[in-house]
Amino acid sequence: MSSKKQLATGRRQLADIKKLTILWVLAALVISYVSQLNYDAWRRYSPGKISVDYNVYIEPQPPSPMVARALSFGATEALADWYWLTLIQYYGGGTPNGKYRKLAELFDLVSELSPKFATAYETGLVILPGEGFVDEALLLGAKGERNLPEAWQPPYYTGLVYHIYKKDYLAAARAFERAATKPNAPDNAKYFAGIYYAKADSRQTAYLIFKNIAESTTSDFIRERSLKYLGQLDLIIFLEDSAGRYRAKYNRWPANLEELVRVGLIETLPANPLGRPLVIDPQTGEVREKLK
Amino acid sequence: MLKVWWAIALNTWRETLRDKLLYSLVGFAVLVIAASLLAGSVSLGQDARVIENFSLTAMLVFLLVITYFIGTQLVFREVERKTIYLVLSKPVSRETFYLGKFFGLCLTILVAGLIMAAMFLIVLGVKTDNVPVAAYFAVGAIILEAWLLTAVSLLFSTFTSPLSSAVYTFGVTLIGHGSATIWLLAEKGSPVVRGLLEGVYYLFPNLEKFNLRNDVVFNLVPDVAQVGWILLYFVGYTAFLLILGVSIFRRHEF
Fold first, then answer.
1. Which residues in chain A have their CB less than 8 angstroms from residue B207's CB?
2. Hey, CA dihedral for A211, A213, A218, A219, is it positive or negative?
3. A85 neighbourhood in chain B, CB within 8 Å
């Protein structure tokens, strides 16, 4: 074969290869496009065919804090930010599964990777309880108190969780009391501690806290409210003392507070500074606010 | 002697520029600006935090990429192209050549690091009106770490191929940043494992010393003693690597 023929054959072969390559590329593109469309359709619209919820595909799968820390190779804060952004996207993305199953894990992971990330604790304490993670929120709050000993927010927010979701007023009072000891804590931390101690009937502590607030606060509103709470506590103590004298005389507790006036132990029933009605327990002689 | 060092260092700098080094700076700028623009809308007001953490981590990664891909090729390329004969036939000792290469790449890393730092600080300043002092220390520590790893990559490049030395240097980086985990494992292991891991802990460069990045978001400025120990560790370990590298390079037969 002459060299010209060889050259022509070579060129033809090269042209064939080029055509084939284009065909292959087009075919690959078509295959990938079609399979992508079908995959998306399967993932989005066929819940019956798969045994797990759709959310499992979109919900994050955070590693354990120990693994994450080891794999961060020192970039713990950057990794914490990554999971923080993941958490926000996850929470903002709705709950196809009915519950943000990984929410508490994500808050735990972020706070483990960045123990001094104050916003993570605050956000977690606000969001988690409402999503059914009350105990996890309290654990997060406790971690926040350990890692940010100077911050008033973790115990303050913890107090709210105890109040709203646990109805544990004594624990709420203790949390607010801890918050009140921190630098720059809002005056109302002490005020709330007083309220909750009163609810939990730790009156002596409540009395001291309200007295302290009234003397130290710069807020007129808080001072006024504190003095009213102090007034109510004074009134309760006065009425219980009178009930004690009634018992010494009649060998039983009065059936109601008006009886103290009727037998002449007190002239009139003083008005409660907080404007709430008070009642006496005829079994124990304890005076408290009338439950609504 | 100093003049020769400087000439080699300057030449190395020019060589790195020809390696399209500036592309990495463009990549960094895009990353920092994209992160800062996205951060505000998706981080619940944590813009500063995200910009600081992501930018400083990106800065370290970009500088290490320069170290891995340029540092490991510097000596190898001279040998492969046989240009090393030209240099060594002149009154240039092998030590001067080796150290010149090291300081040249350090200069590259310094310039790239400062440009990246400027981009990061400008974006942070514009976006948050507040640049924490700790950020300057973190930037300095990142550059020191990249310099130390340059010495590591040069050392490996004296006796192995560029790809291998890049892989080994990457391995040293991982071990160096995993030092806390290594120590944790050592504490939990049997006496033999403990001894082995403690050996690894002390032998490999402890790069976590240079990790001041995590303190930037809280503006925790390192104290004088900490900075002093970091500098001393850097000088000591880098000197050790350079001496080792020079002694291997001196015995190298081309």
1. 74
2. negative
3. 42-43, 50
